[in-house]
Design a protein that fits this description.
CATH class of the largest domain: Alpha Beta
Radius of gyration: 23 Å
Number of helices: 9
Low-confidence stretches: none
Number of strands: 16
Bound molecules: nicotinamide-adenine-dinucleotide
Structural class: alpha/beta
Helix content: 25-40%
CATH superfamily of the largest domain: Dihydrodipicolinate Reductase, domain 2
CATH topology of the largest domain: Dihydrodipicolinate Reductase, domain 2
Length: about 350
C-alpha cells in the first residue's frame, strides 16, 4: 500500500517532490504545508491539498512520511517535531548545519523508532554511478585521483542561500552533494585530511564557491569544486587510475576512457611545446593505449522513495544511513575549519 506523504516547504524543491509524488508507485501526495499562505493557495489552485498549519500536519493520523523542503536552518526543528509526533522524516540536504544538530535529529529518530533520512538524490546521478562502475571494473587500475566539478556563472542565488542565518553558501548547497558522492563512491576508505578554500566573489556573507581536497587513507585524492563564477566550464568528472584515465565532459555525456596496455612506448617523437620541446608530454600513439566511450549507467532517482517505503516496512535497509550523514557532516565541518585556518585538517572520518 502507498504511504501518505506531506511536503513541508512548498517552494522550488517542494514542488519537485510533489511532482514526483503525483507520479509515484509508492507514495501518495496527501498534501503540502508552507509557512507562506500564498504557496498554500498556489497548491490548492493545482488541486493539491494544503494544510493550514504545521500542527495540523502533525495531528493528521493518515500522514506516514514528512519531506522537509524548507531553507536549511529549519530542517532540524521541523524534523525533531515530526519525529516526536511519530512521523517518518525525509530531510532535504544538507540534513542540517552541524554535527550537534544532527545528533539531536538522530536521537529524536531513535526515541521514536521512526525512519529518518536525507534526500541525497545525487547518488542517482549517472556520472557518479559511472565512476563507481569504472572503479569496480578495475579497468583503470587503482584510482588515485578524482576531480568532481560543478560550474555555473550566475553567482550565488539571491535568496536565503546568500544568508548565513538560513544555512546558505555553496558548500552547504552543492558541496554537500559532491562530498556525499565522494563518500558514496569510496565508502570504506577513511578521510584523513581535508583542505578547503572558499570563494566570496559575488557576496561576502557566505561562500559562493568552494574547493575541497579530500585525502583518503589509501592515498586517493578526491577534489570537489563548486563554482558560480565560471564563465568557461571545466569537465564534470576527471578520474585517474594507475592504468588509465577517464573523463565525463558534462551532465549526461558518455565517459571517455583511455587505458594503457603497454607503458614502454618505443620511438617517442618529441613535440614542440611553446618555447621548448618535450618527450614526456608528447601524446601517445595508438599502439600502447585503448580508447573507448562508456555509456553512463541508467538510474531512477525515485528508487530513493522506493527504498524509504520498503525500509519503513522493514523489507529493506535504509540506503542513506545515519552513519553516512554523520560522515558528510564531519567532512563539511572540517572544510569550514580548513578554510578558516588556512590549514589541512587532519582527521579520521
Ligand atoms: N536535493 C536537491 O537536488 C535539492 C535541490 C534544490 C533544493 N534543495 C533543498 O531543498 C530545500 C528548499 O530549497 P528550495 O530551493 O526549494 O527553496 P525555496 O526558497 O524555493 O523554498 C523553500 C520554501 O520553504 C518555505 N518555508 C520556509 N520556512 C518554512 C517553515 N518553517 N515551514 C514551512 N515552510 C517554510 C518557504 O516559504 C518556501 O516556499 C533546501 O534545503 C535546499 O537545500 C535540494
Amino acid at each position: 500500500m502507498k504511504k501518505n506523504l506531506v511536503i513541508v516547504g512548498y517552494g522550488g524543491m517542494g514542488g519537485w517532490h510533489a511532482d514526483c509524488a503525483l507520479r509515484s508507485d509508492v507514495v501518495n501526495l496527501a498534501g503540502v504545508y508552507d509557512i507562506k499562505p500564498e504557496r498554500n493557495e498556489y497548491a490548492r489552485s493545482k488541486g493539491i491539498f494544503a494544510y493550514d498549519s504545521f500542527e495540523a500536519v502533525l495531528a493528521d493520523p493518515k500522514v506516514d512520511i514528512i519531506t522537509i523542503a524548507t531553507p536549511n536552518e529549519m530542517h532540524c526543528p521541523i524534523a525533531c517535531k515530526a519525529l516526536e509526533a511519530g512521523k517518518n522524516v525525509i530531510s532535504e540536504k544538507p540534513v542540517t548545519l552541524s554535527s550537534a544538530l544532527l545528533e539531536k535529529m538522530i536521537a529524536a529518530a531513535t526515541k521514536s523508532g521512526k525512519l529518518f533520512t536525507v534526500h541525497q538524490n545525487r547518488r542517482w546521478d549517472n556520472e557518479i554511478l559511472a565512476v563507481k562502475e569504472i572503479k569496480e571494473s578495475g579497468k583503470l587500475g587503482e584510482i588515485f585521483n578524482v576531480e568532481s566539478r560543478v560550474h555555473g556563472s550566475r553567482g550565488i542565488p539571491g535568496d536565503w542561500r546568500a544568508e548565513k542565518e538560513h544555512g546558505g553558501g555553496m558548500l552547504l548547497d552543492w558541496g554537500v552533494h559532491l562530498i556525499d558522492q565522494a563518500l558514496f563512491a569510496f565508502p570504506d576508505d577513511p578521510v584523513v585530511g581535508v583542505f578547503a578554500r572558499f570563494d566570496f566573489i559575488t557576496n561576502a556573507e557566505v561562500d559562493d564557491g568552494c574547493r575541497v581536497n579530500l585525502i583518503f587513507e589509501s592515498g586517493l585524492q578526491y577534489y570537489v569544486e563548486v563554482g558560480t563564477s565560471n564563465f568557461i566550464q571545466l569537465p564534470r568528472m576527471y578520474i585517474q587510475g594507475t592504468n588509465g584515465s577517464a573523463l565525463i565532459s558534462d551532465w549526461g555525456r558518455p565517459m571517455q576512457v583511455v587505458c594503457c596496455h603497454n607503458w614502454d612506448e618505443k620511438d617517442i617523437v618529441p613535440i614542440q611545446a611553446a618555447s621548448g620541446i618535450t618527450k614526456t608530454m608528447a601524446p601517445r600513439n595508438d599502439k600502447t593505449i585503448t580508447s573507448f566511450e562508456q555509456p553512463l549507467p541508467a538510474s531512477d532517482v525515485h528508487d530513493f522513495y522506493r527504498n524509504v517505503v520498503k525500509a519503513i516496512d522493514g523489507k529493506e535497509t535504509q540506503l542513506i544511513t545515519h552513519a553516512q550523514m554523520r560522515r558528510v557532516m564531519k567532512v563539511m565541518e572540517a572544510s569550514f575549519e580548513s578554510d578558516r585556518t588556512g590549514e589541512v585538517v587532519r582527521c579520521k572520518i
